[in-house]
Amino acid sequence: MPMKQNEHIRKTIYASFATIMIAAAAYTAVSCETTEIIGTHKTIDAVYNKGTTASTFVDRHGKMIALDATDINSLTTRIDRLIFTENRIIVVDRKGNKLIAFDNNGHYVSSTATIIGNGHNEYIKLADAAFDKDSKLIYAFCDAPYCIMLLDTNLQLKKKIPLDYFLSDMAMDSKYIYGIRRNKESGSELIAIDKDDLTSEPIVLHTCRNYVNGLGSIGKSITSTDDGILACLPFSNTIYNIKNGTTEQTITIDLGDRWSTDLDKGLDFRQFMKKNDRKNWIIHNMACSDSILLFNTNLEHSYIVDISGNSCNAYSYLSDNAIPFVRWTIIPSSGLSKCVAYELSVRSMAQYAEYVETKDPTMTSSKSYQ
After folding, report:
1. Model confidence pLDDT, tens digit, residues 204-244
2. Most buried pick, 143, 203, 213, 318, via CB within 10 A?
C-alpha cells in the first residue's frame, strides 16, 4: 500500500522517563462509595495554565518505536492501550477490534484478527486486555458473548472463559483482574475478580452513581502500575491506588468550576453536552511514576500531579522543541516502569526526522525511523 494511503494508520510510540516537576492548587466531591477500608486520602486542587514545555517532565532521550505496517493485520485504527512484555509490544485496538503483537523493535508478529467470528474459539467484539506477569498470558475481555480469552504473547489462544457481565476497562495485579462494569442501581462499579477463579463472584471495591445516558469515555479509566493499578470511575474525580484488592490511597482532584455539576442528574448526552461542552467530566489515560501522576480528561488537558507535594498543574497544551510533533494524549500502558507513552503518526515522524537533522544533528538521524 502506498505511504499516502497508509500513513494515517501506521503508528509510532514515544516512551520517555517521567522526570516530572509540578505546583499547587478546592474540592468538588462526587457521589462515590466504597465497600472496603480505604487507606490514606487527600484532595489536591488543580491550577490551570495555558501551556508548558514537555521537557519539564519527560526526558528528551526517550525511545521511538515505529510499528510495522507491512501486513494488513498489523494496521492499527486507534491505540487504546499498550502492553509491554519482555519481548513483545501488544497494541489494544478496540475500534479495529483486535490485539496486535510486535517485537521490541516494532516488527509485526501476529494479530487476533484471524480469530474474529462466531466459532467456539473465536470472538465478536474486543473490549480491553491486560497482562498477567506470573503466567505471562494476555487476558482479553470480549463482548457478544461476554468472555475472557487467555492468549500467549504471540496471541495464540489458550483458553476461553465465559462471563455473565460486561467490562469496559481492564487491568491486573498479582491477585486480581480489575474492571469497570455498569450497574443499573449503583451506576458504575470497580470490581476485582480472582484471577485464579474467573467464574467466582467479583468483589465490588468502589461505586459511582454519576452517569450520563449515552455518554462514555474514549480513553481508559484503569491502568496498571508496577505492582498495582490506578482507577477512576467514569464521571468521578477520585483516583484510587489499589494493590492486591486493597485501596492504599485515594486522591480527589478538585477541578474547580471546570468540573461538571450535572453528572448526577441523569441527563441524556445531548442535553448534557449542550451545557457542558467546555467542562471536564471524566478522568482517564493515567500514568504514574513514584509520587508523580499524569492524566488526561475529556478536554485533553494535560494534568501533572505531584502527590507528595500536594499540587496539580493543568495545561491546555504542551509543546517542546526537543520532541516536537507528538500528540500529547497519554496512551495507557503496562510494563513501562517510570515511563509514559505517546503517539506519533508517520507524517509526524518524517517531520521529526527532518527537524532532527536540521536543528540538532547530535540526535539520532532520520534513518533510524524509516
Report:
1. 999 998 888 788 788 999 999 988 999 999 899 999 999 99
2. 318
C-alpha 307/C-alpha 305 separation (Å) is: 6
- Residue carrying C-alpha cell 467456539: 120
The answer to whether the beta carbons of residues 284 and 297 sit under 8 Å apart is yes
Instruction: Using the structure block, give the residue that is written with the C-alpha cell 461505586.
Output: 207
Beta bridge partners of 178: 171, 192
Give burial (CB, 10 Å; 0-12/13-18/19+) of 154. Answer: exposed
Span 247-300, pLDDT tens digits: 999 999 999 999 998 887 777 888 888 888 889 999 999 998 878 899 999 987
**Residues paired with residue 128 on neighbouring β-strands, in sequence order:** 141
* Residue-wise pLDDT tens digits, 12-67: 554 443 222 211 222 233 344 544 446 789 999 999 988 777 666 666 556 778 88
What percent of the chain is predicted at pLDDT more than 90?
50
Among candidates 350, 349, 231, 369, which has minimal Cα distance to 295? 231
Block residue for cell numbers 445516558: 213
How distant is the alpha carbon of residue 194 from its chain centre? 22
Q: Determine contact, residues 124/94, Cβ cutoff 8 Å.
A: no
- What's the CA gap between 11 and 177, in Å, rounded? 28
Cis amide linkage into residue 202, ω under 30° from 0: no
Task: Calculate ∠ Cα 75-78-83, nearest 5°.
Answer: 85
Cα separation, 40 vs 249, in Å, equals: 5
Cα 90 to Cα 105: distance, rounded to the nearest angstrom: 12
Cα separation, 13 vs 28, in Å, equals 35
Flag whether pLDDT at 10 surpasses 70.
no
Contact between 64 and 14 under an 8 Å Cβ cutoff? The reply is yes
- Whether the per-residue pLDDT at 166 is higher than 60: the answer is yes
- The b/e string for 185-210 (b: 16+ C-beta within 10 A; e otherwise) is eebbbbbbbebeebeeebebbbbbbb
